[in-house]
C-alpha cells in the first residue's frame, strides 16, 4: 500500500507542477532556499557559538523556564509591546499583503503557511495551487474515519482530535523512509510530505468530530475549488454564510503561530526533535493545547462570560462589571482572557477579532459585554496589582465570534485552535529537519542540587 500511496502523491505533485509551471511550488521554493539557510546557521554557530545570549535565574527554573532564551523558532517572534510578528510582519501587515480568496477580505491561512516556511509571500497563483493540493490530499484513511466514528460522544473533542491525528501515523512517509535508512539530508523532504498530508486532513478530522458529537453525523465533501478556510466552514456545516468563511480565514491565520515557547509549539518541536513523525509530534502538541492554561482557555472565558451575563441580568453597566470583576479577584480567582506570559499590551490578535466584530456584529449582545469589560478590566487589574499584563489576550474574544454565527459548542473551540496551530508548528518541524536541529535535551537538577549550586555561587 505504501508504494501505491507514494505513486499517487507523486502524480498529484506532477499535476500541480504542470498546472502552475510558470511559478515554483512551495516544496521547490523551500528546496532552493534551504542550502543558503543551512550555511547561514553553520556560520552563525561557527562565529558566535560561544556567545552568552542570556542568564538563568533560580526563580526561572522553578517558574516554568519563563523568559529563558533557549529555542530557535523561525516563523514568528513575540515582542512584549508590539505583539506577534510573522516573519517580521504584524497582523495588519499580513492582512494587507497575503493573498485572499476572490472577493474576500481576510488573508488565506495557506498563504501564511507558505510565508512561515519560506519567509516569502506567495503569489495568488501559488496560493491557489497550494489550496488545490491540500484539497486533493484531504481524504482520510478508512481506519481513521472508523476510529472517530467509534469514539463516545462524551469523550472531549480534543481527545478525539489527538487520537485521530496519532492514528494517521499509518500514512507517514518519514517513518517509512527512516526505517529504510534514508540520508539525514533528505529528512526534511519526508517531513514536508507528512506535514502537507497532515495539514490537508485536519478539516475532515475536525469536522467529522463536530458533526458526530453535536450534529447528525453527516459530512459534506471537500470542494477542490475552495480554499482551506472555506472548506473547513463548509464541512462544519456553515458554508452558506460568507461572513463565517471570512472568520475562519482570519481565525486560522491569527491563531497559527505565537513563537516557539508556548506549550503546543514547544511540545511539537520537542517530540519532533526525537525524530518522531509530524503526526506523532502534532498529536503531542495538541494534548498540550487541550490544557486550561493554554488552548482550552477560550472555552473557559466563554463559560465565565455566560456566568457574568446571568448574574448581571444583562445589565452591562461599567459599575456592575467593575463590581463583578472585584468579586472574582477577591474570591481568589483570575479574570479569564486577561494577562499573558509575554505580552505587556493588548494582544494584537484580540484587536484583529475586535475589528472583525465591529464590522460584522457591532450590536451583538455578547460583543457589547466583551467591549465593556475591555474598558473596565485593565483599570481593575492594574489597581489589584497582581497581574503583570492587565490587557486582554486572544482567548477573551474568539469564542464570542463563533457564538454569533451559531457555532455555540464551546468544548469544540480548542479543536479549531488546534487546526490553526498546525499552520505554525508544522513549518518549523520541516525547517528543524532541514537545518539538522539536534535532539532537545536540557539539563535538570534536583532541589537539593540547586541548593548546593546557589550556595556555592553565593560564596564566590
UniProtKB/TrEMBL annotation:
MF term (GO), any: acyltransferase activity, acyl groups converted into alkyl on transfer
Transferase found in the keyword field: yes
GO biological process: carbohydrate metabolic process; citrate metabolic process; tricarboxylic acid cycle
SUPFAM superfamilies: Citrate synthase
Keyword Transferase: yes
Domain of life: Eukaryota
One of the record's GO cellular component terms: mitochondrial matrix
Family annotation (Pfam families): Citrate_synt
Keyword field: Transferase
Annotated catalytic residues: 294, 340, 395
NCBIfam families, per the entry: cit_synth_euk, PRK09569.1
PANTHER family assigned to the protein according to its UniProt record, in alphabetical order: CITRATE SYNTHASE, CITRATE SYNTHASE, MITOCHONDRIAL
Family statement drawn from the similarity comment of this UniProt entry: Belongs to the citrate synthase family.
The protein's name in its UniProt record: Citrate synthase
Gene that encodes the chain: CIT1
Amino acid at each position: 500500500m505504501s508504494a501505491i500511496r507514494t505513486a499517487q502523491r507523486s502524480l498529484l505533485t506532477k499535476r500541480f507542477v504542470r498546472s502552475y509551471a510558470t511559478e515554483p511550488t512551495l516544496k521547490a521554493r523551500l528546496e532552493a532556499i534551504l542550502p543558503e539557510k543551512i550555511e547561514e546557521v553553520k556560520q552563525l554557530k561557527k562565529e558566535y557559538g560561544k556567545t552568552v545570549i542570556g542568564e538563568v535565574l533560580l526563580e526561572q527554573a522553578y517558574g516554568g523556564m519563563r523568559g529563558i532564551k533557549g529555542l530557535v523558532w523561525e516563523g514568528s517572534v513575540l515582542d512584549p509591546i508590539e505583539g506577534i510578528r510573522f516573519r517580521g510582519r504584524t497582523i495588519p501587515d499580513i492582512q494587507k499583503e497575503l493573498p485572499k480568496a476572490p472577493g474576500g477580505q481576510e488573508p488565506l491561512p495557506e498563504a501564511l503557511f507558505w510565508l512561515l516556511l519560506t519567509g516569502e509571500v506567495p503569489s495568488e497563483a501559488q496560493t491557489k495551487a497550494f489550496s488545490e493540493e491540500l484539497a486533493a490530499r484531504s481524504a482520510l484513511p478508512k481506519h481513521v474515519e472508523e476510529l472517530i466514528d467509534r469514539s463516545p460522544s462524551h469523550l472531549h473533542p480534543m481527545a478525539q482530535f489527538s487520537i485521530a491525528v496519532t492514528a494517521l501515523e499509518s500514512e507517514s512517509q518519514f517513518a517509512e523512509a527512516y526505517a529504510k535508512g534514508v540520508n539525514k539530508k533528505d529528512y526534511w523532504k519526508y517531513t514536508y510530505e507528512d506535514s502537507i498530508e497532515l495539514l490537508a486532513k485536519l478539516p475532515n478530522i475536525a469536522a467529522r468530530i463536530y458533526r458526530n458529537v453535536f450534529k447528525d453525523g453527516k459530512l459534506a465533501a471537500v470542494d477542490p475549488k475552495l480554499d482551506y478556510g472555506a472548506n473547513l466552514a463548509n464541512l462544519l456545516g456553515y458554508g452558506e454564510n460568507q461572513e463565517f468563511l471570512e472568520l475562519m480565514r482570519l481565525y486560522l491565520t491569527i491563531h497559527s503561530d505565537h513563537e516557539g515557547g508556548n506549550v503546543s509549539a514547544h511540545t511539537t518541536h520537542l517530540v519532533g526533535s526525537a525524530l518522531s513523525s509530524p503526526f506523532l509530534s502534532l498529536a503531542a502538541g495538541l494534548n498540550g493545547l487541550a490544557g486550561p492554561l493554554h488552548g482550552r482557555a477560550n472555552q473557559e472565558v466563554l463559560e465565565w462570560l455566560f456566568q457574568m451575563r446571568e448574574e448581571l441580568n444583562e445589565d452591562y453597566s461599567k459599575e456592575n462589571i467593575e463590581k463583578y470583576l472585584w468579586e472574582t479577584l477577591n474570591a481568589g480567582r483570575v479574570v479569564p482572557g486577561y494577562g499573558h506570559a509575554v505580552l505587556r499590551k493588548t494582544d494584537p490578535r484580540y484587536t484583529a477579532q475586535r475589528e472583525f466584530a465591529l464590522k460584522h456584529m457591532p450590536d451583538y449582545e455578547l460583543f457589547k459585554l466583551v467591549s465593556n469589560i475591555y474598558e473596565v478590566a485593565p483599570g481593575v487589574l492594574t489597581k489589584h496589582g497582581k497581574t503583570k499584563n492587565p490587557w486582554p489576550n486572544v482567548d477573551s474574544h474568539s469564542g464570542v465570534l463563533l457564538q454569533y454565527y451559531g457555532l455555540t459548542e464551546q468544548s469544540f473551540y480548542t479543536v479549531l485552535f488546534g487546526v490553526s496551530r498546525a499552520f505554525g508548528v508544522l513549518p518549523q518541524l520541516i525547517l528543524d529537519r532541514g537545518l539538522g536541529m539536534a535532539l532537545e535535551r536540557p539539563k535538570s537538577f534536583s532541589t537539593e542540587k540547586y541548593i548546593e549550586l546557589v550556595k556555592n555561587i553565593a560564596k564566590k
